[in-house]
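One chain is below:
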Amino acid sequence: MIENSKAIGVLDSGVGGLGIVKYLKELLPGENILYYADTAHMPYGSKSASEVKNLATNGMKYLCAKHELKLLIVACNTATVAGLECYRKHFPMPVIGVVKPGVKAAVSITKNKKIGLIATVGTVNSNTYPKLMVELDPSIKVYQMPCPKLAGIVENQDFNQDVISIAKSYLYPLLNNEIDSLILGCTHYPSLYHIIRPIVGKSMNVIDPSFFTVREVYDFLTQSLGRNPQREGYQIFYVSGQSWKFYQIAQKLLGYPINISSIRQTTSDFALSL
């Protein structure tokens, strides 16, 4: 019972991982959730893999210093590809990333074996998605498109610019490859679903890895660690940047007030030697 009541940690560069929180609340309402938003260093997508790994490690160390966790979800795709195996080696709790669940979903859903991926520059450059998909099915063809502007649009709620034209410039080249499935390879992108769906058409399989990640967490807790039996868990949000800005956007995306705490630290305060 003590293990069951421990919290689930969720780490992201900003508001993108709130999709994970929404799915957790729907599928696992009894779980306590601790969210770390590293908005002071957002965006992660344009940074080097080593820098992202260190920043993500700092966030995990912070959560572990504040609370006892039973599970940690790396909600950021860029942070996942930068160092998932490293995090697993250095932290005692299970660490789950968002990439593999999305990969498995896409491979199982596609009919013509042509899959498109929109993601940050860092995620695309890692080539992790294509490698994992080809491991599952060598006949799969993956077409990747880095989308450096999209995460910032969502993070800043900057919809004054022509977001539709920006999205089209990223998506049209993928559609020319006759893909039948599109992976939203950044947790910020589902917030643009209302823009992406009309561009790609109704028949396109649009895959949100966050949903499949939480499904995997649900199965893992059910079969192994155990779910928290309480009716409704608490949520605490730690923000390394402007907490008021995060609060406003998070409340809008989640649909309810949140308990938020500002973080006062330098990048070395909770550094881990890797």
In short: Residues 265-274 have pLDDT under 50 and may be disordered. The chain is about 45% helix and 20% strand.
